Amino acid sequence: MTPRPVFARNETRPGYGGPVGRNLRPGTRWAWDFEYPPMSYVDSLAFDDLLTEDETVVADILQPGLVIGDPGSPLVNGAMQSGRTLHLKGVAPGYVFRKGQWLSVISQDQRYAYKSRAAATADGSGNLAVPLRTMIRHPLVNNAVVEIAQPKVEGWATLEQDAHAIDAVDRLVRLRFTIEERE
Q1: How far, in Å, CA of 68 to CA of 41, rounded?
Q2: Which of 77, 128, 145, 151 could form a disulfide with 122 if both were Cys (CB 3.0 to 4.6 A apart)?
Q3: How far is 96 from 98, CA to CA, in rounded Å?
Q4: What's the alpha-carbon Rg for the chain, to the nearest Å?
Q5: Nearest Cα to 91, choosing from 45, 133, 130?
Q6: Dihedral sign, CA of 148, 3, 130, 153?
Q7: Residue 44, phi then psi, degrees to nearest 5
Q8: Minimal CA–CA distance to 31: which of 65, 8, 55?
Q9: CA atoms within 13 A on the CB side of 109
Q10: At 150, phi and psi to the nearest 5?
């Protein structure tokens, strides 16, 4: 599993030289490239839902070796947030959200994944301001559920052309696909 940003930024390049400017805009989202170890054809059938054209796919965001601890019951604290800081409530007091840690927010029946750009600690009331790597790209509703203990990605699946191919020699399937967030 390899995450990568899908940028929405705007770059300005002067026609006759000079400095290049980058303007951040809401809309940068994430895509994850998945590559599974070789598996039997029968085991690969569990991934047949990836062939669906009109439904999104949800997968866990892996954070190997990261001890998440007990983050409490985090919720979005205040509607219509914008910018690069996400305000949460219901977090366990003193909980430390690490730089580079993932979270996902479920708002208006859609899941959005975000990665922190700096560490942050919840105050004694359970409030936490998480500095984000990307801008908040859609207005979030107050009290939207935030997944910290097990964040997930939701998006459209795109399979490699031969993603379900059965190898002629060992008869195994080497599944590869990408999940890209919708917006």
Answers
A1: 35
A2: 128
A3: 6
A4: 19
A5: 130
A6: negative
A7: -70, -20
A8: 8
A9: 2
A10: -145, 80
Taking the C-alpha atoms of residue 5 and residue 83, their distance in angstroms, rounded to an integer, is 17
**At 7, is the pLDDT very low, low, confident or very high (cuts 50, 70, 90)?**
confident
pLDDT > 90? residue 20:
no
- Relative to beta strand 102-107, strand 10-12 is unpaired
- From residue 13, alpha-carbon distances to 19, 24, 124 in Å are 7, 15, 47
Please enumerate in sequence order all residues whose Cβ is within 8 A of that of 72, keeping only pairs 6 or more positions apart, or say none: 90, 91, 92, 95, 122, 126
> What is the widest separation between alpha-carbon atoms in the chain?
60
Q: CA-to-CA distance for 50 and 61, rounded, in angstroms?
A: 17
What b/e string do you get for 38-73 counting C-beta neighbours within 10 Å, with b at 16 or more?
Answer: eeeeeebeebeebeeeeebbeeebeeeeeeeeebbe
Beta-carbon contacts of residue 25 (< 8 Å; ≥ 6 apart): 8, 9, 10, 135
The tokens describing 9, both together, are: 């930024």
Residue type, 20: V
Please choose, from the candidates 127, 122, 125, the residue with its C-alpha nearest in 3D space to the C-alpha of residue 89.
127
Residues in the chain: 183
Q: What is the pLDDT of residue 73?
A: 98
For 171, counting Cβ atoms within 10 Å of its Cβ (0-12 exposed, 13-18 middle, 19+ buried), the class is: exposed
pTM: 0.88
